[in-house]
Fold this protein.
Amino acid sequence: MKMGISLGLECPYRMRTGGCYFCRPDSFIAKYQREHISIQNQLDYVIPLYKNIYGDKRGVFAYFQDNTSTAGNIEWLRRQYQTAISHSDVEGLVISTRPDYINIEISDMLAEFNQKIPVFIELGMQSVHNKSLEFLGRGHTIEDTDNAINILGKNGISVFVHIILAIPCETKQDMRETIFYVNENPYIYGVKFHNLVVYKDTKLEQMYHREKFHLPDLREYIHLLGYLLPYLQGNKCVLRLYTSYKDRSLVVAGDFKGDKGKWNNELYFYLKTNNIIQGSKTDKKYSVTDIYK
Ligand code: SF4
């Protein structure tokens, strides 16, 4: 069970450039994370909340969730991560960041923590195509992503990548190529898929009004997942299927009607009725009866 916490820092890329065109920080940061309270206090606040909902059974991962959680002075970062793992309930660390904020020094420090407790990095990869990274204003290339993953992987750190689907300049084949990259990289343990969402007061909103590009509705998005999942090897975990946001009123376009329960039901029904299985078009195959029990 991952407990979202915040270092309380602004994303350095946003401070430098205005940020990724789609990014609106208050769409993904919870209120308690915005209040600049200590890591210890955030964990003390959020762990009991989730334990009440899910029971006391599951191990807790401290999830440095927002902005770029490997940016900053390395000794200060070390103290923040140490505070998190010193919490009596915490059994692992998950740290989200950008590819250009991974270097050997950071990776070595994470490897030290990884000796004591499992450490995972969530990396904003988004796509394997530089044209798409430019469209999104990411400010890094796939070469930067590949370099970051290799630095981490060679140090024994497990990497999960975030991927945005249905970026307007991408074809289905482009998206498949991103999946192929994930399959081929041995250091990537899993993916988080996101549907592209346009938030108010972002550069993407201006582009959306100007270019009127198409964003899939729920049915189209589920069909897209149904098309892509068979190409994703069965040994790559899928941690997320949709963009998650705290406040729907901030969304201009790309929202789906209903809630995640409804989306999952529709996805499950679509996959089941069409016998779609993750990895079925790769070398790592699973039978329908193994999965739909
Ligand atoms: S790197 Fe992340 S937090 Fe920073 S601007 Fe881009 S999406 Fe936002």
